[in-house]
Write a structure and sequence with these properties.
single chain, 236 residues, alpha/beta, Rossmann fold, five-stranded parallel sheet, two-stranded antiparallel sheet, 9 helices, binds zinc ion
Length: 236
């Protein structure tokens, strides 16, 4: 028996003993399905953004910070599938959901031949205290998987968070901006020479976090920053 065949059998036994279920509807997943069943996967509200045509994420940053190009993979709504998936990803130790989105999104970007110029993929960092508490950065696996698809370097120790801000979900735009200001700095002990950066976050709402991270990165001469997020909260 080939190792591949053996792995498939073990995987199938595992599926019987520990049924893997869809994060969307709780039905049992087929062997080739991962995170979502085919029906729920079909329901994912893709934005269809690309890196050639202007979109609503680009417009968030106009006049605030010179982002080269931005895009989000899916729409976030207050109820529904994406909200639940991101909640599992962020608070319930389901880090593999980030890998699932990264693989899907990275495959599409690669197929369309976009972002070939990117040298380094940088996740929006968590403060070290928050990282310790949560155990992982919820955007890390998404960013790392995107980097793999692009053949770029995954770099999570250059941009660091120095202000431990509280969770921002219920605060207004001005408060978010104030608290994001000077929240990040570059780790100058890392001698990074990357100029073409893809900055990656989980959800973009007001854009304050990305703005602050990008301002910090753009302090370096000749830097160009593009942006990708798993989700965008639609306006209104
Ligand atoms: Zn499902």
């Amino acid at each position: 028996m080939t190792p591949k065949r053996l792995a498939k059998i073990i995987n199938e036994i595992n599926t019987i003993l520990l049924p893997r279920v869809c994060f969307g509807c709780n039905t049992q997943l087929f062997t080739e399905e991962h995170i979502l069943c085919a029906v729920c996967r079909h329901d994912v509200p893709l934005t269809d953004h690309n890196y050639l045509v202007e979109n609503e994420v680009d417009r968030i940053f106009y006049g605030r910070v010179p982002i080269k190009k931005a895009a989000s993979f899916v729409f976030f709504s207050k109820n529904g599938l994406i909200k639940n998936l991101l909640h599992w990803l962020k608070y319930k130790n389901q880090e593999q959901i980030g890998g699932f989105f990264g693989d899907w999104c990275g495959t599409l970007i690669k197929e369309r031949g976009e972002l070939a110029h990117i040298e380094a993929v940088i996740p929006v960092p968590l403060h070290s205290k928050k990282l310790k508490k949560r155990g992982y950065n919820q955007v890390a696996l998404f960013a790392r998987t995107i980097a793999e698809h692009l053949g770029a370097t995954y770099c999570d120790d250059w941009l660091i968070k120095v202000k431990n801000t509280k969770t921002q979900t219920k605060k207004g735009r001005q408060w978010r901006w104030e608290s994001s200001k000077d929240a990040f700095r570059l780790n100058h002990s890392k001698n990074c020479t990357f100029k073409q950066i893809l900055l990656v976050d989980d959800v973009i709402t007001t854009g304050a976090t990305i703005e602050s991270c990008a301002q910090t990165l753009l302090q370096q001469q000749g830097m160009e920053v593009s942006v990708l997020s798993i989700a965008i909260v639609p306006e209104g």
